[in-house]
Structures are given as C-alpha cells and as structure tokens.
Amino acid sequence: MPAAAGCWALYGKVLAREYEERAWAAEHRLTVDAYAVQHAGSDDRRNRQSVAIHLMSLCLVLERGGDNERARHLLSKVARGARDWPRLIPPGSFALTVVDVNAAGSPAEHLELVRCWAEDVWRSWEPEHDRVRGWLSAAG
C-alpha cells in the first residue's frame, strides 16, 4: 500500500495493540479494510485488487451485516481469483484516519472509533458503491 512512513508506523502501532489486547480486536477486520482503502494511490495490479477486495469487505460488514469470519472467507476466495480489477479513483479526503484511532484511550473508545472510521471511509467511496455491491453479489 502506498503510505507515508509515519502513517504506516501508526497503523502498525494500532495493529499491535489489537493483536496484544483481545478487547481491542473486535473490529480488527474494519481496521484493516479502512486503512487499505484509504491508501488506494497506485495503479499497480495488487493495489487495485486490494482496494476492490477491502471495499467489498466494508460493504459486507457495514451494509449486509456480515461478520469478521464471513468477510475473511470472502477476501480469501476473491483474492485467489485471477481477475484484473479496475483502478478506482479514491475520494479526495477522509474525516477520520488511523491517527484518530491511535488516540483511543480505552477498548470501548477504540472500537467506537474504528467503526466510525470504517463507516466514514465507506461513505467516502459512495460513487463506487453500486460497482462494489455488484462485485460482492457476484462473489457469493
């Protein structure tokens, strides 16, 4: 993922907290998805695939009530395919980022911030929602 060194370091810090403290991890899938689609900068095949798959995961969890296990299964299934995903144009800006999530002082605050972050990111990609929903439906 194309990311500034400082941003990548904060993301690593958030992930470490989620891995070390189980109470912080309930929304881990959303942490990964939100970060991935906020870093959709290159036209590289792997980056295009990452953005498409993580947007499908956000749609599955936030709109269709899917859980972490179902999202993990979907990501695995779709990533194995040989599809050449189109480049999606990222939104101009986001209200929340990993910086906000990193500032959480408690598990409850962390989980709330991750959920808000993921919802904001998904809303920001609204011009691509119909396309992403179609991919998700086709993926089963």
- Return the domain count: 1
- Low-pLDDT stretches are none
Order of helices and strands: HHHHHHH
State mean pLDDT (0 to 100 scale).
90
Secondary structure: helix percent: 55-70%
SS element count, helices:
7
What overall form do the CA principal axes indicate?
A: globular
Oligomer: single chain
Largest sheet: none
Approximately how much beta-strand content do the residues carry?
A: under 5%
Gyration radius (Cα, Å) is 14 Å
Q: Could you give the count of β-strands?
A: 0
Task: Report the span from N to C terminus.
Answer: 26 Å
- Pairing-aware structural class of the strands and helices? mainly alpha
List the helices and strands and how they pair.
Layout: H1 5-20, H2 28-38, H3 45-62, H4 68-80, H5 98-102, H6 107-124, H7 129-139
Note down, in words, how this protein is organized.
- The chain has 140 residues and is an all-alpha fold.
- The chain has one domain (5-139).
- Helices cover 66% and strands 0% of the residues.
- It has 7 helices and no strands.
- Helix 2 (28-38) packs across helix 6.
- It is globular and about 40 Å long.
